[in-house]
Design a protein that fits this description.
Layout (H helix, E strand, L loop, with lengths): L8 E5 L6 E6 L6 H4 L7 E7 L3 H10 L6 E7 L8 H13 L7 E6 L1 H13 L5 E6 L2 H7 L4 E6 L2 E8 L4 E5 L8 H18 L1 H15 L3 H21 L14 H11 L6 H18 L5 H13 L12 H8 L12 E6 L2 E5 L4 H10 L4
Parallel strand pairs: 2-9, 3-4, 3-5, 5-6, 6-9
Antiparallel strand pairs: 1-2, 7-8, 10-11
The structure holds nicotinamide-adenine-dinucleotide (NAD) and glycine.
Length: about 375
């Protein structure tokens, strides 16, 4: 990774007495100044997975400092392990270690680890402290911020969960050096999302910087992470539990979750499904008369430039999509709620899409 060793920056998620910092920069993992202040007491459990542990667990332990009772739990890798059974393993390990309500859980890994550890923390002894140490781009720009925690259910993605905010988020940008290119692209989907829903200038900057971002240019990635986290922090501070504006962060997710659930968790990466889902949402917005052909073409171009798929799975019928989309958590009563685009940089919540318009869009959308 091209490295300018920029000094770390700090943003705040403003939630009153539950406000917390997001520290972003290189070299944070092994430096006790960043992690130690956020521990609730001496008992610390680091939860990670078998891919991340050999790369970053030792470095994180250096950053914890001395005089702590530190335990480690290394779970199997993958979206398919984002289950209640894995969370039970975390609870079992905490109980076996005699951890009390002043313990702190540290989530070291991508969004799968972050979501599970946050949920384990939310429920253990009715709620204990946790710190997010995200190591994928997707987790650094999205899942580690905002307190959505949980696991998948065979009938729906993230169907079991809780809102539970971390004490801090530590984004060590050095960790991106080992991230596979496909995972980097998946993270870029969520970065593009912020531009599409809320910030046309950021979207234009991303279009210009896509090669630098995919080439792991440190300055470009740091700026993308900072802008994404700032936009997310602003939205979460406004609407922590998704009563309104926070739903906009789900652009592309209703289509994307349907793809993930239908294909079996882990076959499509979450970010890949969101990338294709955002293009489906853009196409539907055009059919509803909001986006122009040129705006849809721009959306397709940036998703393609990020290395994300532009077509839905060949074996998914319109009925497959609709059946899973009807289970989406955003739906109220029996109405399907979708996040669509009025223009690039401005999203809206829409619950009046005629079923035939939606079905026609899905039918016509390319397959691969
Ligand atoms: P992930 O956690 O599965 O990580 C992707 C892969 O990268 C895994 O194999 C992981 O072991 C590996 N990895 C992690 N860090 C690495 C590193 N530095 N170097 C090399 N390999 C590394 O997936 P993800 O994309 O990070 O997160 C997806 C999950 O996040 C989904 O379950 C999704 O539902 C959830 N999510 C949650 C929120 C939220 O608000 N809570 C938002 C978006 C997504
Ligand atoms: N990733 C969507 C949200 O945090 O609300």
């Amino acid at each position: 990774m091209n490295d300018s060793r920029k000094a770390p920056s700090t943003l705040e998620v403003a939630l009153g007495s539950r406000s917390y910092p997001i520290h972003i920069g290189p070299g944070l993992l092994g430096d006790p100044r960043w992690l130690a202040p956020h521990l609730a007491g001496r008992q610390v459990m680091v939860v990670t997975n078998e891919t991340v542990a050999p790369r970053y667990l030792a470095r994180l332990r250096q950053g914890l400092g001395d005089d702590l009772d530190v335990r480690e739990l290394v779970l199997p890798d993958g979206e398919a392990t984002k289950t209640l059974a894995s969370v039970e393993r975390i609870w079992d390990t905490l109980l076996a270690a005699g951890f009390n309500r002043r313990c702190t859980l540290i989530a070291l890994g991508g969004g799968v680890i972050g979501d599970m550890v946050g949920f384990a923390a939310a429920c253990y002894q009715r709620g204990v402290a946790f710190v997010q140490v995200p190591t994928t781009l997707l987790a650094q720009v999205d899942s580690s911020v905002g307190g959505k925690t949980g696991v998948n259910h065979p009938r729906g993605k993230n169907m079991i969960g809780a809102f539970w905010q971390p004490r801090a988020v530590l984004v060590d940008t050095d960790t991106l050096a080992t991230l596979p290119a496909r995972e980097l692209s998946a993270g870029l989907a969520e970065v593009i999302k912020y531009g599409l829903i809320r910030d046309a200038d950021f979207l234009a900057w991303l279009e210009a910087q896509m090669d630098a971002l995919r080439g792991l240019d440190a300055a470009a990635l740091t700026r993308a992470i900072e802008c994404s986290c700032a936009l997310k922090a602003e939205i979460v501070a406004e609407d922590e539990t998704e009563q309104g504006v926070r739903a906009l962060l789900n652009l592309g997710h209703t289509f994307g979750h349907a793809i993930e659930a239908h294909q079996g968790y882990g076959h499509w990466l979450h970010g890949e499904a969101v990338g294709t889902g955002m293009l489906m949402a853009a196409e539907l917005s055009r059919r509803l008369g909001w986006l122009s052909d040129a705006e849809v073409a721009r959306t397709r171009a940036i998703i393609e430039a990020a290395g994300l798929p532009l077509a839905a799975p060949a074996d998914m019928s319109v009925d497959d999509f609709l059946a899973i989309m009807r289970l989406d958590k955003k739906n109220l009563d029996s109405r399907l709620r979708l996040i669509l685009l009025h223009t690039l940089g401005e999203a809206c919540i829409h619950d009046a899409t005629p079923t035939e318009t939606l079905a026609a869009l899905i039918e016509a959308f390319p397959r691969r």
